[in-house]
């Protein structure tokens, strides 16, 4: 076989025309600076130049007959008995080691990235897989190579959200989990900051394995675990937060963690979710749990359960202090107490009061106590909790407490609610109604003597309420008038239509007797009854809306009087509209349905269409009004809040 020797100032390469097996020169070996040869002119500085760089790199490897070590053509030169000639084996190992050493770990960009960094960043996972196979198990520490930013290939994979590369790199070298970049961040830190929660879960699973199976204790030497925990909670990933919490035996900044839970705690479960939750508590079997949480719309139930479990776990990891030591434990959690009260996070307050009973005596910088702040911020769940469990033995003391401005609880209830609480209620009329409900509830609590006491501004609670809610009452009046006027026009039109239909009988009358021709027809009877119902209910609806337009619109009227009239008017209008549509359908059947019973199907379908539309568009308003006026009170002081 002929052999050609190619020499260069930078490299010496021996190339064979035939391969892979033969004399030692069958396996080429560049002796100097193979990675710096000028054939690769493009620096791999981004994804946009990757294709050009890849083509030039392949040309380089091919021109020096080294590509076979990557694509698998240059196998280990062993004979049929599993043995190899010594000189061939040495040559193969020498060349193969060169490729292994240069291709995965050599810095090939101006930022100090290796081909592993590039493959992870461009999500070229097939290339990454090949590169990882080239690295022997006993030498996997080469994966710790860092670029100019101190990032390992695992850091890069996490930054771009390359989940597959993350799994592959961690399996190859678990020590990468604890590598830090120049800012001291581990891959898990970066995954949380970049909101790659799936990758965070992957890394946590491997970290927990390393801790309990391999005895690693220093889990996070970079960013503190509490900061990561707060990030996970802020993303509302409470299950992931529970996993992270297992890695820490003590939480030093408990207030910050609990504050994050209070600010991101999931909404209270509705009736059906509570029912399912209670049933699931009695059936802890895996089959039942699978059936319950297999439905996507019930995942909120699991989220709520995880949040409760996380809350309890955090309290158990907070170090206890002696109340005699400065500052006391209650003083350390003052901000949490009032923030959780503002957010109406009664779950947090429940656990906090059980853990730190003295927290209820906290006073904020404005001189307000727990109960006062709950009234100011319209936190009904906290108020109910305090009323039933905390103030039960000292209610008289709380009835007469005042703030630095001389305001008692009723003065504070007379203030306008914060904007973020008002916007939770749709419509100015319902907003003023809720404010009145709060004022009446606190008025009942404080008793008759406190109702007339004045503050330092010489104002009674009623005067404060009138002044603070003047603009809201005006807005409520405008909304109520506009609503009543629009429905008044609708009711008048319906009255006109159904009255005309009542005196114009379908099919006409018998000229001799004056009795309708279709008197004994079921469809005619349905027409007559529906038309009468529509007429009478439309008149009722019109009278209700007219009474709203002529009322005096005082603040007290928004509590029951105006909502009641609007509910009756809307309900009557709905019945009238439905009856009118049914009457029209019956009339059409009388005219066109003779010996054509099939026509009943399209008439029925078309009749249901406007009724369904009316229900869809108007029922939410009726439901909101009825629920706020006659529904279950928000001040359910009988409710049990402790677990």
UniProtKB/TrEMBL annotation:
Keywords: ANK repeat, Membrane, Transmembrane, Transmembrane helix. ANK repeats lie at residues 111-133, 149-181. The keyword Transmembrane helix applies. One of its GO terms (cellular component) is membrane. InterPro entries: Ankyrin_rpt (IPR002110), Ankyrin_rpt-contain_sf (IPR036770), PGG_dom (IPR026961). It comes from the Eukaryota. Residues 477-590 form the PGG domain. The chain crosses the membrane at residues 487-506, 526-546, 566-592, 598-623. This is Ankyrin repeat-containing domain, PGG domain protein.
């Amino acid at each position: 076989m002929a052999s050609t020797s190619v020499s260069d100032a930078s490299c010496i390469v021996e190339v064979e025309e035939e391969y892979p097996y033969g004399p030692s020169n069958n396996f080429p070996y560049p002796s100097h600076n193979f990675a710096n040869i000028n054939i690769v002119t493009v620096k791999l500085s981004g994804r946009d130049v990757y294709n050009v760089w890849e083509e030039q790199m392949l040309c380089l490897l091919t021109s020096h007959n080294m590509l076979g070590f990557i694509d698998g053509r240059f196998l280990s030169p062993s004979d049929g008995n599993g043995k190899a000639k010594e000189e061939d084996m040495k040559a193969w190992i020498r060349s193969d080691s060169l490729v292994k050493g240069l291709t995965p770990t050599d810095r090939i960009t101006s930022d100090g990235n290796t081909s592993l960094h590039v493959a992870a960043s461009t999500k070229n996972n097939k290339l990454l897989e090949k590169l990882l196979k080239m690295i022997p198990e006993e030498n996997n520490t080469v994966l710790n190579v860092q670029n100019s930013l101190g990032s390992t290939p695992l850091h890069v994979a996490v930054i771009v959200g390359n989940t597959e590369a993350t799994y592959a790199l961690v399996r190859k070298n678990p020590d990468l989990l604890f590598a830090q970049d120049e800012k001291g961040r581990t891959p898990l830190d970066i995954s949380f900051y970049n909101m790659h929660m799936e990758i965070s879960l992957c890394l946590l699973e491997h970290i927990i394995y390393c801790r309990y199976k391999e005895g690693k204790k220093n889990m996070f030497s970079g960013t503190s675990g509490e900061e990561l925990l707060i990030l996970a909670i802020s993303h509302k990933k409470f299950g992931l937060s529970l996993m992270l919490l297992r890695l820490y035996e003590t939480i030093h900044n408990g207030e910050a963690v609990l504050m994050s839970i209070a600010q991101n705690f999931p909404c209270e479960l509705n009736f059906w979710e509570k029912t399912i939750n209670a049933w699931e508590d009695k059936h802890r079997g895996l089959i039942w749990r699978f059936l319950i949480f297999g439905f996507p719309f019930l995942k909120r139930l699991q989220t709520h359960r995880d949040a409760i479990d996380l809350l309890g776990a955090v309290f158990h990891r907070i170090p206890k202090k002696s109340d005699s030591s400065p500052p006391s434990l209650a003083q350390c959690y003052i901000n949490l107490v009032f923030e959780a009260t503002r957010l109406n996070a009664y779950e947090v307050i429940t656990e906090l009061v059980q853990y730190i009973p003295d927290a209820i005596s906290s006073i904020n910088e404005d001189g307000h106590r727990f109960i006062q702040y709950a009234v100011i911020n319209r936190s009904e769940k906290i108020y109910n909790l305090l009323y039933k469990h905390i103030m039960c033995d000292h209610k008289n003391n709380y009835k007469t407490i005042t703030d630095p401005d001389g305001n008692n609880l009723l003065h504070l209830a007379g203030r306008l609610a914060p904007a973020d609480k008002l916007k939770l209620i749709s419509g100015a009329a319902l907003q003023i109604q809720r404010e009145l409900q709060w004022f009446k509830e606190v008025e009942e609590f404080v008793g008759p003597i406190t109702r007339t006491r004045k503050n330092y501004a010489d104002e009674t609670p009623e005067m404060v309420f009138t002044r603070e809610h003047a603009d809201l009452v005006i807005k409520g009046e405008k909304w109520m008038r506009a609503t009543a006027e629009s429905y008044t026009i609708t009711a008048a039109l319906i009255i006109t239509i159904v009255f005309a239909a009542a005196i114009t009988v379908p099919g006409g009358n018998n000229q001799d007797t004056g009795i309708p021709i279709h008197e004994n027809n079921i469809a005619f009877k349905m027409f007559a009854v529906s038309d009468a119902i529509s007429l009478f209910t439309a008149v009722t609806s019109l009278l209700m809306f007219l009474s709203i337009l002529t009322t005096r619109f005082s603040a007290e009227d928004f509590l029951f009087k105006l909502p009641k009239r609007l509910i009756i008017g809307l309900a009557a209008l709905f019945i009238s509209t439905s009856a009118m549509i049914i009457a029209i359908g019956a009339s059409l059947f009388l005219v066109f349905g003779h010996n054509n019973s099939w026509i009943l199907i399209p008439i029925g379908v078309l009749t249901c269409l406007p009724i369904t539309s009316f229900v869809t568009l108007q029922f939410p308003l009726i439901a909101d009004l009825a629920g706020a006026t006659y529904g279950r009170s928000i001040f359910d002081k009988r409710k049990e809040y402790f677990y």
